[in-house]
Amino acid sequence: MSLVFENKVALITGGARGIGRATALKLAQAGSDVAIVYYNSSDEAAILVDEIQNLGRRAVAIQANVADHQSVKAMFSQFKEHFTQLDFLISNAASGVLKPAITMSTKHWRWCMETNALALNHLVSEGREMMPAGGRVIALSSLGAHRAIPNYAFIGASKAALEALVRSLSLELAEAGISVNTVSAGVVDTDALKHFPNREQLLDEYQAHALAARPLTPVDVANAVYLLCLPEAEMIKGHTLFVDAGYSVVG
Amino acid sequence: MNVDSVYPKVREIIADVLVIDEDNVALNSRLISDLGAESIDFLDLVFQLEKEFNIKIPRGQLEKNARGDLAEDEFEKGGVLTAAGMSALKNYLSEIPPEHFKANMKVNEIPMLFTVETFCKLIVAAVSEQKASETVA
Question: In angstroms, rounded to a whole number, what is the distance separating the alpha carbons of residues A65 and A116?
């Protein structure tokens, strides 16, 4: 019995750790070959490549700074040495500065906006020629796009920009038959969360209001990305899919 | 390859990342205290140094190098450096004047000590390790 994503190729930015890692593994388990794009996490990326190869899939790790157009261009040149198509483009890498907005600078704004939002545009503009009809672009976002979360101001703004860009790109890629969507994840305890000064508060408040007893895991988010990559999801476009155990809808 | 040979390029990259004049960067400049580097700057710096010198600088490599042969729990307790840890750190960061090492220093304060020279040493070590593993392979 063949796997649903057999002969498909996925590229995941920020793929070496956390949600990106879980997504890479999920898509690989479903049959996809995978390109892991990392920035600083070379060791973790190499380990993940091994794991995916042990599943019988092809996997490569490519270093890039997704905020930088030239770096993304070079990244796709390397990608093309291994793959002739791209089916699933997962824009997951994010970075930021976790301080009150009124203490932050233009440099911080640009860092957040370019890494978290503009990167999607670099990825799509350089990657689209390799994407067939039926391809998927998925960006990872969070509730910070809609709600004020302490210390998250600039990242939240960048996620709002990202979600708006997803809608525009879904319009622009429609004719090519490529679906572009957002997955908005609730609070997941990954390495990234360790940088939050209010990490415990975030986890506690999430758990207090989420409609599930257990915490949200990277695998849960990866599963949502997987759903949007399925053939059955073809008519879901420009949508923000929340995977947060209902946290955002309860009073 | 040694500190002096890599210094010019490292200086150039640091000045570029921190958006400061190269003239304001010296070998003994501390990245955070003297040059105003922040956490995002370290991310960018590591990326650019890795690219320029074709090396890998895994996360926490500097702290790992400072620990040397010490186990993690010999190096620090509850986030504070032990006496053995402080000694190992001073030994590794030999370029840093001893008066900069304050008593009961926390592990997360270590980056405050890093100078341009610290990064030059890191690069020289990474390049020679890379060459060694290539030879073995």
Answer: 11
Q: Give the tens place of pLDDT for each residue, B26-83.
A: 999 999 999 999 999 999 999 999 999 999 998 888 888 888 888 988 998 988 999 9
Query: Which residues on chain A are in Cβ contact (under 8 Å) with B44?
Result: 65
Q: Do B47 and A65 touch (CB under 8 A)?
A: yes
Q: How far is B98 from chain A (nearest CA, A)?
A: 30
φ, ψ (nearest 5 deg) of residue A128: -65, -30
Give me the number of domains chain A comprises. 1
Summarised one tens digit per residue, pLDDT across range A30-75 is: 999 999 999 999 999 999 999 999 999 999 999 999 999 999 999 9
ipTM, two decimals: 0.89
Closest by Cβ to B58, choosing from A42, A95, A97: A42
B82: its two tokens: 């032990």
Interval A127-146 mean pLDDT: 98
Q: What is the CATH number for A130? A: 3.40.50.720
Nearest chain A CA: its distance from B41 CA (Å): 10
Under CATH, to which class is B3-126 assigned?
A: mainly alpha
Does some domain include residue A4? no
Any idea which residues of A carry the catalytic annotation?
152, 159
Q: Which of A38, A42, A108, A155 to mutate to test the interface with B (most CBs of B within 10 A)?
A: A42
Range(s) of the domain holding residue A92: 9-249
State residue B82 phi and psi, 5-degree precision: -80, 175
Q: Return d(Cα B125, Cα B6) in angstroms, integer.
A: 11
Round the average pLDDT of chain A to a whole number and report it: 97
B59 touches chain A (CB under 8 A): yes
pLDDT tens, A152-195? 999 999 999 999 999 999 999 999 999 999 999 999 999 999 99
In degrees and rounded to multiples of 5, residue A147 shows phi and psi of -120, 150
Say if CB B35 and CB B25 are below 8 A apart.
Answer: yes
